[in-house]
Design brief:
single chain, about 260 residues, alpha/beta, two-stranded parallel sheet, 10 strands
């Protein structure tokens, strides 16, 4: 019996060591929250599915933080509380206000939205207006980061001055509009290189979000924050639970090898 108990303890300790080694704080990446989301659309989650996910985070007592808060913990190499998760949105779709915001308020979930500056309030009516951005800011539940001036991946921009404008000017304009420091940048389409990272640091950002850069990049670099795409299939709570477990990044990167 003593031998069995000892073996069990050893297994538990070993499992804990392995878990800590492969654990990456889940940073959830959303785009649109809109009715009629289909399973094949990877960029849209239905309001019903999104509400189930936010309710799950609240009921399961996740430590939901702003991405800027998580980045500061990473930068300072401080212990990250168990079950920490961050919620982010890319592009600044209007439905982030009309659908997602109400759900965020209902469950008091903080979120980070990355804005494409030149698309705010555009004629198509599918992007956030500055008025909506300010209302979300005033709630205390939403922080904003730059997603550059336009949607073009920065790695496609050859002109150095234009590249600098995308990174520096987007920060200046967003800070002017929201009247708050803008600490976060998100690489358009998640694509970056060493030169882009260097400019993001020079511009004064404290962290930058990617998408899924792969195993060749460290898990805890504040300027290459790995995120997990959330789509309508995550309305299945088993799938969402796996995504928020902290080991999904490891599973995905092993699967993609």
């Amino acid at each position: 019996i003593v031998f069995l108990i000892g073996s069990f303890v050893v297994v538990i300790i070993a499992a804990g060591i392995i878990y800590r080694h492969i654990y990456v704080v889940p940073v959830l990446m959303y785009h649109s929250v809109f009715p009629g989301a289909g399973p094949d659309n990877r960029l849209v989650v239905s309001p019903r599915g999104f509400e189930r996910q936010m309710r799950f985070l609240r009921e399961q007592r996740f430590n939901v933080v702003f991405l800027s808060q998580l980045a500061e913990l990473v930068r300072a190499a401080k212990p990250i509380p168990p079950k920490t998760v961050a919620v982010t949105f890319d592009d600044g779709f209007k439905n982030n206000f009309t659908y997602a915001f109400e759900i965020l308020k209902r469950y008091q979930i903080p979120a980070t939205i990355f804005i494409i500056i030149n698309e705010v309030g555009r004629a198509q009516g599918d992007r956030l207006s500055w008025e909506e951005i300010l209302l979300m800011r005033d709630s205390g539940l939403v922080e904003f980061g730059s997603h550059a001036l336009g949607p073009e991946p920065l790695i496609n921009i050859v002109d150095e001055q234009q590249l600098r404008r995308e990174i520096f000017e987007s920060k200046r304009q967003l800070e002017q509009r929201v009247r708050q420091p803008v600490k976060l940048f998100c690489y358009p389409e998640g694509k970056f290189n060493d030169r882009i990272i260097s400019l993001v640091k020079e511009a004064g950002y404290s962290a930058a979000a990617a998408t899924a850069p792969g195993r060749s990049y460290p898990d805890h670099d504040p300027f290459i924050i790995k995120r997990l795409r959330v789509s309508e299939n995550c309305a299945n709570m088993v799938i969402f639970w796996i995504r928020t477990s902290g080991i999904y990044t490891f599973i995905k990167e092993k699967r993609d090898d």
